[in-house]
Amino acid sequence: MKAYCLNKISEVALKTLNENDKVVDDVTKADCILVRSYNMHEFKLDKNILAVARAGAGVNNIPLNDYANEGVVVFNTPGANANAVKELVLCAMLLASRDILGGINYVKENKDDKDIAKNVEKAKSKYAGHELKGKKVAVIGLGVIGVLVANSLIDLGMNVIGYDPFLSIGNAMKLHKEVKYVEALEDCVKDCDYVTIHVPLNPNTKHMLNKKIFEAFKDNTILINFSRDTLVCDDDLQWALNNSKVSKYVTDFANEQVVKLDNVICLPHLGASTAEAEDNCALMAINQLRDYLENGNILNSVNYPDLNASIKQGQIRVCINHKNVVGMIAKFSSIISDNGGNILTLTNKSRNDFAYTVIDVDKNINIESIEKLEGVLRVRVI
After folding, report:
1. Model confidence at 58: pLDDT above 90
2. Rounded CA separation 372/375 (Å)
3. In whole angstroms, what is the distance from residue 89 CA to residue 250 CA?
4. Burial state string for 318-327 with b = 16 or more CB within 10 A and e = fewer than 16
5. 198-216 pLDDT tens trace
6. Beta bridge pairs of residue 64
7. 180: part of which helix (H) or strand (E)?
8. Average of pLDDT values for 179-184?
9. Structure letter (DSSP) for residue 209
10. What average pLDDT does this structure show over 215-242?
C-alpha cells in the first residue's frame, strides 16, 4: 500500500501500516488515497489510484460516479464513529430537555456576585426542565448509529418507536426487543416527545422532515438531527418552531438560516470529533484498502458492490471493474480459456450500473484482451 493523505489521518492508525506499506507525499506515486473532509470534486485523480477511503461515513465530498467510471473503488467507514455520535445525541437530548445552557450562562453572568451561592437557589427555578425517563421517542433510521441510540434510550427508561424501511437483518438482531417498530414515518413521530433522525442523505431522504411530517408531531416536540442538515427542510422547520410543533431543535450542522432561529441549539459538527472515533475510522479505512489492494476484496464501498473472494486460490487473481451489462462473464471466461488458463474460482457482484468480478486462474495469462473489452473500466492482476 502506497497511501496519499488528503487530510491529517490518525497517527494511531498509520502506525498499523506494515513494513511494505508507506504514506507518500506525491499522489502520482500512490495507489490509494485516504481522505476525511477534503473536497475531491475539483481534485485531479491520478491514473495510478485504485481506491479512495473516506475515514468517516459521509461521502458528499467525493464524486462517486465519476470515480466508478474510472474503476476507482470508494470506501467509507460506517459504524466506526457510531459510539461517539450516540453519546452526543444523548447529550443533545439532555441539553434540550433541561435548560443546562441557560443555567451555565446565568452563573457566568453573575460570577462577581458575592452572594452567588444564595442567589442561585432563588434563580434556579427559571432553568427547570424535564426528565427523559418515561418519555416517548421516535428513532428514524435504524442503522448502526440508530440502533445504538435506540438501545441506549431503552436503558434510560424511555418508550422507543423505531422506523427504517431498509432495516437490515443484522441491525434488527441487535435492536433491543422493547423497541416498537412501525412501518410508516407518520406513525413513528406522532405522539412522541422527542424525534431523532439517523439516516443517510440522498435524493430520497433530502427534506424528509418537512411540513407534512411536522404536522404529525405532537405540540412541543424536541427534534434532534446529528445526521445531515438537509434531511430537515429549514423553511418548514421555521414554521414548526413558530407554530409550537417543535419546541427545541438540536443539530450538529450550522447554516446561515438555522443559526438565526430561536429555540435552536447548534453545535459545530462535533458528532464524530473524538480521538477514539478518528482512530477507529482511520484504522477501518486502512484495513479496507489493504484487503482490496492485496486480495481484491471489497467491503463498505459506496460506488461498487461489496465482494468477498477470500484469499487467492490460483497462481493469479484477476480483478475486473466493469459496467453491469449482459454477457461480460462469458467474455471473461472465453478469453481466459483461449489463453490456456483454467478458472478455479469466479465471484461476481453488481450494484446499479457497475459490477466487479474476481477470477482465480491456475496460471499466468495475458489480460490485454480483457482490458480492451467494451464496458471494462479497469483490470489488475494480483
Report:
1. no
2. 9
3. 9
4. bbbbbbbeee
5. 998 889 999 999 999 999 9
6. none
7. strand 180-182
8. 97
9. B
10. 97
